[in-house]
Specification:
The chain is an all-alpha fold. The protein has 12 helices and 2 strands; from the N terminus they run H-H-E-E-H-H-H-H-H-H-H-H-H-H. It has a two-stranded antiparallel ribbon. A hairpin with a 6-residue loop joins strand 1 and strand 2.
Length: 289
């Protein structure tokens, strides 16, 4: 009976794994298939042109401006949320009392459960009017979008980094303290280094979360297909273009296919980041042996 249960569990695990892998492959195949018409029609210009005018008499399908906007939003958000998440994780790991840790974790869990559309509504209703008062010419702009992305991604960053720090063997920190290290030094230089693979994974997951976010940037970024000269300028990332135009575009048209090219670019970026993270973790672990 036990052998039968083990075999059934093994079969169930394998079937689930193959279904997940198969679904991922089908997603790739579907997106690539739908992207081919635009790639044939526009060619390399779709990646090198700044002009996105898909409804003109002579349409242009350049996604470079929107790609740059996506990258800029991701960079600015990451520069804020990753250090902030690490500081909060550091405090929870080493300095927070049990009650404080439970309180912070509860707040983080609550924030992580807030739908992105609610965060977008909060930004548009309460924060966007303030943008005009601080010198912005558009109430929805890059700064507002970055603020929303920080709120949205912060719970994931802080939670994952705290889990990475907590997974380190406590004997490492205790050994450093026994040798005379300060608490801050022991955690910052010893525990953090040991938790580096988990921290890198949390950073990659955060970046993937930010670059793939749709609703917040759709509502708060301003929707202007332009290269920003300041953080107060409106922008339009790839995800906002896909969400705003996919429901109105003619299915099977070059415009429709160009939107799939945008999705393919985002998917490729996510895969590259994930593979890079795995390679880093593997190299780091091999270097420790």
């Amino acid at each position: 009976m036990r052998e039968l249960k083990d075999k059934l569990n093994f079969m169930l695990i394998n079937i689930t794994a193959f279904l997940g892998i198969g679904a991922l492959i089908l997603i790739f195949v579907f997106i690539i298939h739908e992207s081919i018409p635009a790639l044939k029609s526009a060619g390399i210009e779709i990646f090198t042109s700044f002009n996105w005018y898909p409804t003109y008499d002579e349409p242009e399908y350049g996604i470079l401006t929107m790609l740059i906007n996506s990258i800029l939003l991701t960079i600015f958000t990451s520069l804020i949320v990753i250090p902030l998440g690490y500081i909060v994780a550091f405090f929870m790991y080493e300095y927070a009392k049990p009650f404080e840790k439970r309180l912070i974790k509860s707040a983080i869990d609550l924030l992580s459960g807030v739908p992105s559309v609610i965060i977008g509504m909060f930004l548009v209703i309460y924060l966007s009017p303030l943008m005009l008062e601080i010198g912005a010419w558009s109430p929805e702009n890059m700064l507002l979008a970055v603020s929303g992305l920080v709120l949205l991604s912060f719970p994931y960053t802080a939670s994952l980094m705290e889990e990475a720090l907590s997974s380190v063997d406590k004997s490492l920190k205790e050994g450093a303290l026994a040798l005379g290290s300060a608490r801050f030094t022991a955690v910052f230089k010893i525990v953090t280094l040991a938790a580096l693979p988990g921290i890198v994974n949390s950073i990659i997951l955060t970046i993937n979360r930010v670059i793939g976010e749709t609703m917040v940037v759709l509502m708060a970024a301003g929707g202007a297909n332009m290269l920003p000269q300041s953080i107060f300028d409106p922008v339009r990332p790839l995800t906002a273009a896909i969400a705003s135009e996919m429901g109105e575009v003619e299915i099977g048209s070059i415009h429709y296919s160009a939107l799939f090219v945008s999705g393919l670019v985002l998917l490729v970026i996510s895969v590259i980041l994930t593979i890079s993270s795995k390679n880093f973790v593997r190299s780091y672990e091999n270097g420790k042996r």
